[in-house]
């Protein structure tokens, strides 16, 4: 799937440099709406330990919120659906607790 975005006003890509962005991994998320925009709350597991540094438990905690317009949220949903379909064709069905619940309700 080609998701390249055509840039206008660029004569030559030779002057372009990689973007300096931080990559991160989210192990969970929540979706929020404030009536005007949608928020994607990204979460990660954080180990909680005792004073000796021994992990005792894990806690899911938010580390970032990405706000977007309803139009951007809808487009993101379509793009994720397309990417998931392509992944499942190649690697098999992705099973999650939510997808199992949704399948039962169909």
Largest sheet, strands/sense/barrel: 3 strands, antiparallel
Uncertain regions: pLDDT < 50 for 5+ in a row?
none
Secondary structure: number of strands: 3
Write down the overall geometry: extended
* Helix-strand topology string: EEEHH
Number of helices: 2
Terminal CA distance reads 28 Å
Spatial order of strands in the largest sheet: 1-2-3
Question: What structural class should be given to the helix and strand makeup?
Answer: alpha+beta
CA-based gyration radius: 19 Å
Mean pLDDT: 86
Helix content: 25-40%
**Percentage of β-strand residues:** 25-35%
Describe the structure.
With 106 residues, the chain is of the alpha+beta class. The chain has a domain at 25-93. It is built from 2 helices and 3 strands. Strands 1-2-3 form a 3-stranded antiparallel beta sheet. β2 and β3 (55-68) form a beta hairpin.
């Amino acid at each position: 799937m080609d998701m390249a975005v055509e840039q206008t006003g660029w004569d030559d890509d030779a002057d372009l440099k990689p973007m300096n962005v931080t990559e991160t991994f989210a192990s969970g998320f929540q979706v929020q709406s404030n009536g005007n925009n949608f928020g994607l709350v990204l979460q990660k597991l954080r180990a909680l330990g005792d004073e000796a540094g021994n992990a005792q438990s894990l806690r899911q905690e938010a580390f970032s919120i990405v706000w977007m317009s309803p139009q951007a949220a809808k487009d993101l949903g379509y793009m994720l659906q397309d990417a998931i379909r392509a992944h499942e064709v190649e690697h098999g069905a992705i099973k999650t607790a939510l997808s199992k619940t949704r399948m039962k309700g169909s």
